[in-house]
Design a protein that fits this description.
Blueprint (H helix, E strand, L loop, with lengths): L7 H18 L1 H5 L2 H9 L3 H7 L13 H13 L5 H9 L2 H7 L9 H10 L5 H9 L25 H10 L10 H17 L9 E11 L7 E2 L15 E2 L6 E5 L4 E15 L4 E11 L4 H15 L5 E5 L7 H9 L3 E3 L33 E6 L4 E5 L13 H4 L7 E4 L16 H7 L3 H13 L10 H24 L3 H12 L1
Parallel strand pairs: 1-7, 7-8
Antiparallel strand pairs: 1-5, 2-3, 4-5, 5-6, 9-10, 10-11
Helix pairs in contact: 1-7, 3-17, 5-17, 10-12, 10-13, 11-17
């Protein structure tokens, strides 16, 4: 059962009361934790109790210090400590760190307590998880064939994206996924408070970008042999083996042009122009060879269910998302797609009209010039294009008299319904399109923050459960960064004011 839960206001009082004497006697000691103190002071975990209560029984020994242990993980992330054992050792030798997580030096949560919380938040049958961990798995050698630069692994199953789109349109998502509780915690502890603080902008008109990233596991791809092939002189066998990370797979890193062993993370991110901050709102870990275009359908479906009060207005993705099923899904959900065309799909167009168009789906006039976007007519679901000469985009035109005698110039219309891939609601190549495409890198920057700033891979973690947990914790800290930037709250300044009033 869930034990006594210290409220956020009580934690704030506890923190100030215990930090003040240390600050008065050793100011520099406290100053080095200034940013972490400011973030923890504002991390309200009261909502976490409401999320966790249904997952604890009403009987048995109470689970103690649950908000303190969760806060302990957040501080671990902030201080870039990657070992729970080492971290607990640090807590036992530093009273200041104990007070920061909300415990006294004689009541420090142990290593097992930290791992127990991780296990508690993973919604998978422990027996099934243990069987998979202990069982033998096929040994897969590292692929030798390399792909071209920026080329991604294609979908392993033809038509799989269409199948997922059909399921998404029926409202079917993976309700039994073991990471569901982690996603709910992230939504309630990080995303919604940020939305209330205005950091996400207008939640009824959100622009989100989606992208995947490569995450190398700490487990070995060679596993542990249990066969006796070596005794028989066979040292290069393919027998089943035991792996410390049985869910890890080989995937292709298109940026570094190399194969990696681990997972692919897929995140949905929004960008705050005022703060120049990239804010993750959805996190998912999948198999390394999973195609981003497939994961995007799952991500969008789960994100819409996770945030029923949010309205996703635009979705920005790379060329891995350039396929007709995805456009069809986005149009059904009234989400404007901002996706570059995949060069491999250059001749894969469904448009059969008589209007001549260029590679970006923009009509071309009689003189061979791209026509000018003149707005989207929502009531008739069509895009209006005008003559480039009549709109002043060119100074002269040899075809003026042949084309149209009207001063308004020739006007043509394209309909997204005739080819949603070419005739996007926000026309390709338009100023609005270019402006939105610049935001696509926000998801890449979040990837960079997780991997580099918070040193995700240095933890040498094994298993989807722990990778998913740490991705959630690091992402909470990204939200705390943005909130601190917006509020400009400083814990040290608050302490100075309190000590000044006391004096």
């Amino acid at each position: 059962m869930l034990g006594a839960w210290r409220s956020h206001s009580d934690y704030q009082s506890f923190l100030v009361e215990n930090i003040q004497p240390i600050y008065a006697s050793d100011k520099n000691r406290v100053l080095q934790f200034s940013e972490a103190l400011s973030k923890l002071y504002n991390l309200d975990l009261d909502v976490l109790k409401l999320v966790l209560e249904p997952y604890y029984s009403n009987t048995g020994s109470p689970a103690k210090n649950q908000p303190e242990v969760f806060r302990s993980f957040v501080l671990m992330s902030l201080l870039k400590c990657h070992s729970i054992t080492k971290w607990v050792y640090m807590l036992h030798h530093d009273d200041l760190l104990c007070y920061m997580i909300g415990v006294s030096p004689d009541n420090i949560p142990g290593v097992g307590t930290h791992y127990d919380l991780i296990n508690r938040l993973w919604l998978e049958d422990p027996d099934i998880e243990k069987d998979r961990q202990d069982s033998l798995h096929p040994f897969k050698r590292k692929p030798r064939k390399k792909l071209a630069k920026n080329q991604k692994l294609p979908p392993r199953h033809p038509g799989i994206i269409q199948k997922f789109v059909d399921l998404a349109l029926q409202g079917k998502i993976f309700e039994s996924r073991p990471e569901k509780l982690l996603q709910q915690i992230f939504a309630d502890v990080a995303v919604r408070p940020s939305a209330n603080a205005g950091i996400l902008g207008d939640i009824e008109k959100l622009t989100i970008s989606g992208d995947g990233t490569c995450i190398k596991t700490g487990g070995s791809p060679f596993g542990i042999r249990t066969c006796d092939c070596a005794n028989k002189g066979i040292f290069n066998c393919d027998c089943h083996r035991k792996f410390s990370d049985p869910d890890a797979r080989y995937g292709w890193d298109s940026y570094h042009e190399t194969w990696f062993y681990g997972y692919s993370g897929y995140f949905l991110v929004t960008y705050n122009e005022e703060l120049k901050s990239d804010i993750p709102i959805y996190l998912r870990l999948v198999e390394a060879p999973r195609y981003d275009g497939v994961t995007a359908i799952i991500a969008l479906s789960e994100a819409r269910a996770l945030y029923p009060d949010f309205v996703f207005d635009k979705f920005i993705g790379d060329c891995a998302h350039d396929n007709y099923p995805t456009y069809h899904l986005l149009n059904k959900w009234n989400i404007k797609p901002v996706i570059p065309l995949n060069k491999k799909n250059k001749n894969n167009s469904k448009y059969q009209g008589t209007i001549k168009i260029n590679e970006n789906g923009i009509p071309v006039c009689m003189a061979g010039l791209p026509m000018v976007y003149n707005g989207f007519m929502k009531d008739r679901n069509r895009i209006k294009w005008r003559c480039p000469f009549a709109t002043g985009k060119v100074d002269s035109c040899n075809c003026k008299d042949k084309c149209s005698s009207s001063d308004y110039g020739r006007t043509v219309y394209t309909k997204p319904s005739s080819d949603p891939r070419l005739f996007t609601v926000i026309p390709r190549g338009s100023d609005e399109w270019k402006g939105e495409m610049k935001k696509r890198t926000s998801s890449e920057r979040v990837n960079k923050r997780l991997l580099n700033d918070y040193e995700l891979e240095l933890s040498k973690t094994r298993g989807k459960k722990r990778w998913s947990f740490w991705i959630m914790i690091h992402s909470i800290n990204i939200h705390l960064d943005a909130r601190l930037k917006k509020s400009k709250f400083d814990f040290i300044s608050m302490l100075d004011g309190l000590l000044g009033r006391v004096a």
